[in-house]
Specification:
- Helices cover 45% and strands 24% of the residues.
- By secondary structure, the chain is of the alpha+beta class.
- It folds into three domains: 72 residues, Orthogonal Bundle (Arc Repressor Mutant, subunit A); 80 residues, Alpha-Beta Plaits (2-Layer Sandwich); 69 residues, YebC, transcriptional regulation domain (Alpha-Beta Plaits, 2-Layer Sandwich), CATH 3.30.70.
- A hairpin with a 5-residue loop joins strand 1 and strand 2.
């Protein structure tokens, strides 16, 4: 079980109702706009756009905002920004490896914000390639339990290319090759199993166990990074035991 995955899942749920809601909405909207620009504005023929819209809807982004983002991205409406994807590599406290994925219309601003966040919170930027080899791009689908067992989910996705199903507490995480993500998501839909999100993510090959102090430091760093409008996702190779997560939750 990945402590990082469990923490990220819990944090996402809290983000829907806390003060970061508008910032999260903006990032989901940006995903939709870029997906529409890259693959066209029809979700039926653009799986990336389909998943971006689904994720936004499940996070309560208003339909009007979603439709406008699709129009801007596909060129049906003016005003879309020219976003670029940039991946920064770095290290956090305790040698935790970080991949910081930015979606930005200003490379210099994004680089400065990432560098500042790292250096002020016990981290540092790393040379390209020095961290990324520790991660593999995978398809990750998060499925709420809703009374289903791990075997129920596994049986639904096994023939679609799923590699493993992890128990995250209140949900399951289905991991596959990134190229099998759509097949896995479709298999769940055909089995009548709802899912919270379906994304291509960078999954670490090894993880660094953290105690309460180490976990607090890395969570603070990731919060600062994600507070940047240019930062879309942060991937890290840490693992936090359940008892440490519970202690931090109680803070």
């Amino acid at each position: 079980m990945s402590g990082h995955s469990k923490w990220a899942t819990t944090k996402h749920k809290k983000a829907v109702v806390d003060a970061k809601r508008s910032k999260m909405f903006a990032k989901l909207i940006k995903n939709i706009e870029v997906a529409a620009r890259t693959g066209g504005g029809d979700p039926a023929g653009n799986p990336t756009l389909y998943d971006a819209i689904t994720k936004a809807k499940k996070s309560s982004v208003p339909n009007n905002n979603i439709e406008n983002a699709v129009k801007r991205g596909s060129g049906a409406e003016a005003g879309g920004a020219d976003y670029q994807t940039i991946m920064y590599e770095g290290y956090g406290p305790n040698g935790v490896a970080l991949l910081v994925e930015c979606l930005t219309d200003n490379r210099n601003r994004a680089a400065a914000e990432v560098r500042t966040a790292l250096t002020r919170n016990g981290g540092s930027l790393a040379d390209p390639g020095s961290v990324s080899y520790m991660f593999t791009r995978k398809g990750v689908v998060v499925v709420p339990k809703n009374g289903q067992s791990e075997d129920d989910v596994l049986m639904a996705v096994l023939d679609a290319g799923a590699e493993e199903v992890n128990d995250l507490g209140e949900s399951f995480e289905v991991v596959s090759e990134a190229t099998d993500l759509v097949a896995v998501r479709t298999a769940l839909q055909e089995a009548g199993i709802d899912y919270d999100s379906a994304d291509a993510q960078f999954v670490p090959s090894t993880q660094i166990p953290l105690d309460e102090d180490g976990a607090r430091k890395i969570f603070r760093l990731i919060d600062v990074l994600e507070d940047s409008d240019d930062v879309q996702n942060v991937y890290a190779n840490f693992d936090v035991p359940d008892d440490v997560l519970e202690a931090l939750d109680a803070d």
